[in-house]
Design goal:
alpha/beta, 4-stranded mixed beta sheet, 2 helices, about 15% helix, 2,3-Dihydroxybiphenyl 1,2-Dioxygenase, domain 1, 2 domains, about 120 residues
Length: about 120
């Protein structure tokens, strides 16, 4: 199998209007489509689309908690910006020795991470 790139990430939501406000207004992601599945651009190579599972014959069972990471220029600054908009974070910014991470969730508790690598990973660990 040859994968050229990731085209989109689907995020299950229970209230489409609330989720559109969160991703579009609170996070400030540019919206690229507004069909049945509103889609938002994440950087250059992937987008995120909001999925009402009921619209495709499914049901929202629980938020996905594996999360996905959004690369930002500065985790601390972006966290402060989002906190000013009412976003609550889970714990403090984590410094792993190679990156900073800050964990939060959307209104349906789908987990996300603000992320910025600042050093190359140690090849011996």
């Amino acid at each position: 199998m040859i994968v050229e790139r990731t085209d989109f990430i689907a995020v299950p939501v229970t209230d489409m209007e609330r989720s559109k406000a969160f991703y579009g207004e609170t996070l400030g992601l540019p919206q690229v489509t507004d069909g049945g599945f509103p889609e938002y651009q994440l950087g250059e190579n992937v987008s995120l689309y909001l999925l009402s599972l009921e619209s495709i014959g499914g049901a929202f069972r629980a938020p996905h908690d594996a999360g996905f990471a959004l690369r930002v220029p500065d985790v601390h600054d972006t966290r402060r910006e989002l906190e000013e908009k009412g976003v609550e974070f889970h714990g403090e910014v984590i410094d792993t020795g190679v990156c900073h991470m800050a964990f939060f969730a959307d209104p349906d508790e789908n987990q996300m991470v603000l992320h910025r690598r600042y050093a190359p990973p140690d090849a011996t660990s």
